[in-house]
Design a protein that fits this description.
Blueprint (H helix, E strand, L loop, with lengths): L4 E7 L23 E2 L1 H8 L4 H10 E3 L10 E3 L18 H6 L6 H5 L2 E6 L2 E6 L4 H8 L7 E7 L6 E5 L1 H4 L9 H12 L6 H20 L6 H14 L3 H5 L6 H16 L5 H13 L8 H23 L1 H13 L10 H26 L5 H16 L2 H13 L5 H9 L1
Parallel strand pairs: 1-6, 5-8
Antiparallel strand pairs: 1-7, 2-4, 3-4, 5-6
Helix pairs in contact: 5-16, 7-14, 8-9, 8-15, 8-18, 12-15, 12-16, 13-15, 15-16
Length: about 425
């Protein structure tokens, strides 16, 4: 480690996370792409252990398309079980056991920690695709808080996004309000005066207005927009419009079919996710024999009888998920070209998680608990939310059906 430090911004929960090793329900070394940085790849070529050197030669291959110093090579997973070939019988890394942590790649040494660089400041966060990280991030009933701290410059981080709104605000004037928008969105998602689905709908209205101001080159109106929404939130101005949103399950059933089709063609799907998905289908009696209307009726029953009563006391779990996602992905400024498209993708993830949980609640009934929620969100994040291609497919599905509009997003968020 060096004597130099760098400034970091992170949720307070970061201090509470520790890898639990062999006690973990899953391995982070399976079922997805594991990239190797250039420095580590070159170190592997000089590996002092002969057996490991042979395994590395066979198991690590160069990335030939769009490679970088970070994404320089990748591990070739075992074709039979999707596991990293360097795992030992305890499902721990044999490379680390024999040669130490310094032989791990940046990805392997830092996961599930992710880092963004925003205006030169490192922002650190946990991804909930790790079971223990999911518990640390999601199960705190208090509002998620953030803190400034310092860390040793020698600590290696998996760098996700480099974003410099201060430098970009000349070309994109709206970015001068990056922090004002970001703080408003997180405070909105944590405003427990409103139900979470209501906060999501209000967020959509805000993003739509924000998009309009940006398209009209009217970024100077953004502070007034935030003030207006804060006043509306305080006065309850939104409640009449929110109460008028209908109950409609057609979109959910379309999403369910898309997820079912995806499950059939996706390779490397974890048993945890497949189990959750099967429980959801069983809980709403999603079969070829039942009509969409019948399935929708079972879905509504599961929501009212089992999911809703549970979430009255545990809605903070999904709130934490959304706040963590917003902070991680620098929402709404990074991603798609338009602000509202980024909102659509956030609603897609939120509504898919909620839909799957509703089905699981229908199966487990009064026994539905936080463990079911953690298992679903963790496995969903690992198999679906990290799969950009699948999320794009879902977005295109909504777009082709003209569902990527505020009225439909409100229905998805509510139900």
């Amino acid at each position: 480690m060096s004597n130099k430090t760098r400034k970091i911004l992170q949720p307070e929960y970061m201090e509470n996370f520790h890898c639990i090793g062999t006690d973990c329900e899953e391995t982070c070394c399976a079922a997805w792409r594991i990239v190797i940085d250039k420095d580590t790849y070159q170190k592997y070529r000089q590996c002092p252990d002969k057996d490991l050197r042979n395994k590395l030669k066979d198991g690590v291959t160069r990335i030939r398309t769009d490679a970088s110093d970070i994404n320089y090579a990748k591990i070739r997973l075992n074709p039979d079980d999707g596991m990293c070939p360097l795992l030992d019988s305890d499902k721990l890394c044999s490379l680390q056991r024999k040669l130490g942590e310094e032989y791990l790649s940046v990805t392997c040494s830092s996961y599930p920690r992710l880092t963004n660089i925003v205006n030169g400041v490192a922002e650190k966060v946990l991804t909930v695709s790790c079971p223990e990280a999911a518990r640390v991030v999601l199960l705190n009933p208090d509002l998620m808080e953030f803190e400034e701290n310092y860390e040793d410059m020698g600590i290696r981080n998996t760098q996700l996004i480099v974003f410099e709104p201060e430098k970009s605000k000349i070309v994109h004037p709206f970015l001068r309000y990056f922090w004002e928008v970001r703080i408003f969105i997180i405070s909105l998602l944590q405003n427990r005066t409103y139900k979470l689905w209501q906060r999501m709908v209000i967020l959509g209205l805000f993003c739509r207005s924000l998009d309009q101001h940006i398209s009209e080159n009217n970024s100077q109106a953004i502070p007034n927009l935030i003030t207006t929404y804060l006043n509306y939130l305080d006065s309850g101005e939104f409640l009449k419009e929110l109460n008028a949103i209908p109950n409609e399950y057609t979109i959910q059933m379309k999403l369910m079919k898309e997820i079912a089709d995806y499950r059939l063609v996706k390779t490397g799907v974890t048993e945890r996710y497949l189990k959750c998905f099967a429980e959801c289908l069983e809980g709403i009696q999603y079969t070829d024999e039942n009509t969409v209307e019948e399935i929708g009726q079972y879905y509504a029953e599961a929501y009212v009888k089992y999911y809703q009563p549970f979430m009255e006391d545990h809605e903070y779990i999904l709130e934490n998920y959304l706040v963590n996602d917003v902070f991680t992905n620098l929402f709404p400024f990074v991603g798609a070209k338009h602000i509202f498209d980024n909102y659509v993708m956030l609603v897609v993830k939120y509504s898919m998680i909620k839909m799957l949980l509703i089905g699981m609640a229908g199966l487990h009934k009064e026994k539905f608990n936080t463990e079911h929620v953690i298992i679903l969100i963790q496995s969903f994040t690992k198999m679906v939310a990290h799969d950009v291609a699948f999320l794009i497919t879902i977005f295109q599905l909504l777009e082709s059906s003209n569902f990527n509009t505020m009225p439909y997003m409100a229905i998805l968020a509510k139900n």
